[in-house]
Amino acid sequence: MKLKYYVVAALLSSAWVNAQVNVDLKHTIEQVLLEPLTGNVLVEDKENISAIDAESHKVVWSIAKKDYVSTTALQSIDKINSKVSANDFIGAFSKNEEISLIPNSPFALVNLENNDLIINAATGKVVFNSADAGYRILETYYLLAENTLLVLGVKGDQIEFVNFDLNTKGIKWSNSVGTVDSLGKTLGGLFKVKRVAEDKIVAVGSTIMVTVKGVLYNIDKSSGKVNWNTSYAITSFFINQNKDKVVVITDESSLFSSKYALNVLNLSNGDKLWKDNITTKNISYLEDHQDKILVAHTTGFNFFSYKDGKKVWKKDAKGKNIKRVIPVDQDYLYIADNEMNLVNNSGENKWKKFVEIADDEKDEVYYLDKVGSDRVFYLTDTYGNMVDYVSGKKIWKKNVKFDKKRPLVYSVTGDKFLVYNNKRIYTFDANSTDDPKPKGKVEVNNDKTIKSIEAFDWGVCLVGENDVIGLDYEGNQLYHNTYKEPGEGQRRLLKSAGIVGGALLQTGQGANAAMANATVTMTYRDTNGELKSETGHLLTESAQNRANRNADAFGGAADALDKNLTAKVKSRFNAMKQNDEYAFVANRGEKGPELIKVRKQDGKEVVKIELDGNKPLYEIDPVNENLYYASGSTLKIYTK
Fold it and tell me: Which of 161, 168, 263, 420 is 20 to 30 Å apart from 492, CA to CA?
């Protein structure tokens, strides 16, 4: 395929800017997808699937769809399609897009009209072809250590797990888990009513633990035999340190209340080890201690024996509505109602009394942790202060008070905290005893939509749906840009992955990011008392945190990424921590919604793009802050 590249001079003196680079793909573009490991942009048009290099902006690989369709394959796969079209189990795997990234891997699944492909998104190499293997793919998982793909596929009327070895390029084993009809009747209904997390896969000794739309399977790694599976959907699972038990969390919510249940399964046979579940509104913390597990939830905080679920401490740690638990050395800092306390590993109080950190138990807690020189800093809807870690006494006699009717956003740089609330800026120094005073009064067009605050060497930047504001450190205004929110119908056209509440934001700021009840963290404490953690998302978006995956993990994957690509991946992840020069804001323009790229240092609008059509196709790379926009058959690239 011949492709045409041409560079257009950027007219940076004007808000309306031509793309710095245009890539002409000859055919109408149907999908644009950022591959986060390498930064390549996957582009699907009517005839081809291609990858555009993030640095050179050239096509690094391309495959023609017509090359992966055959008459023989069509006939056999059409028979499969006729059997699965109205099945609840099969229907749960339907995808809106033809290209989807396989989590924790450098691979992508391509669903063509009559064929499925798994491709290496970095190289464009097709590693699995359904037309050759005879399977339609429902779900795909990647096992890094084994360098294998676990494929859940349909072959005839059978649904099978298939282990595809990427080293030998062949199927190691396949094993049926049931027929299309039987699984539709037994499991299909689960997917209609229960909320489940993004599926995950873990290799444990000689077995593979994997969730399929929330149903947990234990599979023999060498033969593919299904040892057992749950008859119910789970929201998350964790393996204990001894690798013989599975901690499972299920959703027990009703129309009138939200509840989760926790129990422990025998890994070898799936039997429940505890007679009764721990059923609660929120599970905030789990910590594995080999023979027991610490569970903190809405109405309790105690160790439970893995063997039978009996409590270890005679009494729960004091307090109700346990919102959060933070391990600090061998102690536990926790929030109960609107107060915090510190206990040792026997559940005994280390402070004489609880410390009030908010007006009301429903107030949001944005930050709570040990900081500076043996202090604990807390930041909530209503108060900000520090307490002495040993005595529990407040550093400042009076709390800094906030208006909880107004948004509060914050950022952390080292031991310094920058906070915005009610049109004022506060700076907290974890190593100082000085009572922080608000600086200046920020004139904001819409205070309620402020989403982030960031500190730079030149000053402070505030970003909201209607405002992008630059201030010096005394609170004096350097610039102020205002924008109109897109209408509700137009807002739906915006990609939530790139535009959150109207602006591309960093994570960890504001109430939505601070909510603890959407995740459960399992912390493992070894015999030396050292900690490591794993967070499971109870209600997750399909692409959640995909860009934050550990790049080093892919260095040893055979046939996945070569040395040059691995170096590129590491470079991207290092850059991710440094690049934050622009804000991407959605605006209601004269002709419809538009995207505006604003330089934070001076407020200059360096790019403004009208989003044409009912479904605009674009991606924003949070690492290099490039914007990729599809217009007809052209991919327009807006760089720094």
Answer: 420
Task: Enumerate residues 6+ apart whose C-beta is below 8 A from 27.
Answer: 45, 46, 47, 48, 633
For residues 154-173, average pLDDT: 89
Q: Which two tokens stand for residue 243?
A: 């690798």
Please tell me the distance from the alpha carbon of residue 71 to that of residue 49, in angstroms, as a whole number: 21
Provide the 10 A C-beta neighbour count for residue 249: 23
First-last CA distance in the chain:
29
Beta bridge partners of 301: 296
pTM of the model: 0.77
571 contacts: CB under 8 Å, gap ≥ 6: none
Report the DSSP beta bridge partners of residue 136. Answer: 154
**Pairwise CA distance, residues 462 & 469, whole Å:** 5
Phi, psi dihedral angles at 626 (to 5 degrees): -80, 150
Task: Give, for 627, the enclosing helix (H) or strand (E).
Answer: strand 627-631
pLDDT digits (tens, 9 = 90+) for 184-225: 666 655 555 455 556 788 889 999 999 887 889 999 999 999
* Nearest C-alpha neighbor of 2 from the set 19, 20, 23: 23
- Asked whether the predicted pLDDT for residue 291 surpasses 70, the reply is yes
Task: Reduce the DSSP state of residue 17 to 3 states and report it.
Answer: coil
Please report the pLDDT score of residue 507 as a whole number.
Answer: 32
pLDDT the model gives residue 546? 33
168 Cβ contact list (under 8 Å, min separation 6):
none
Q: In a 10 Å sphere around its CB, with 0-12 CB exposed, 13-18 middle and 19+ buried, how is residue 422 labelled? A: middle
Picking from 292, 290, 297, 334, the residue whose alpha carbon sits closest to that of residue 312 is: 292
- Structure token pair of residue 555: 């260095």
> 463-488 pLDDT, tens per residue?
988 899 999 988 899 999 998 876 65
Strands 283-288 and 519-525, by their bridges, are parallel
- Return the DSSP state at 360: S
Cβ neighbours of residue 419 closer than 8 Å, sequence gap 6 or more: 379, 384, 402, 408, 409, 410, 425, 426, 427, 428, 453
| 450 DSSP β-pair partners | 464
For every residue of 400-466, which 3-state class applies, written as one string? Answer: EECCCCCCEEEEEECCEEEEEECCEEEEEECCCCCCCCCECCCCCCCHHHEEEEEECCCCEEEEECC
Chain centre distance of CA 533 = 16
Rg of the chain over Cα atoms, rounded to whole angstroms, equals 26
Q: Are 135 and 154 in contact (CB under 8 A)?
A: yes
> 552-583 burial, b if ≥16 CB within 10 A, otherwise e?
eebeebeebbeeebbebbeebbeebeeebebb
Provide the phi-psi class of 242: left if phi over 0, else alpha when psi is between -120 and 50, else beta: alpha
Strands of the sheet containing 29-34, edge to edge, are 29-34, 41-45, 48-52, 59-64
Check residue 271 and give its pLDDT: 96
Are the C-beta atoms of residues 322 and 340 closer than 8 Å to each other?
no
Amino acid in position 121: A
DSSP 488-536: HHHHTTS-TTT-BTTB---SS-SHHHH--TTEEEEEEE-TT--EEEEEE
Which has the higher per-residue pLDDT, 193 or 291? 291
What values do phi and psi take at 414, rounded to 5? 65, -125
Summarize pLDDT for 528-585 with one digit per residue, the tens.
777 776 655 443 333 233 333 333 444 444 344 555 555 665 565 554 444 578 888 8
pLDDT at 200: 81
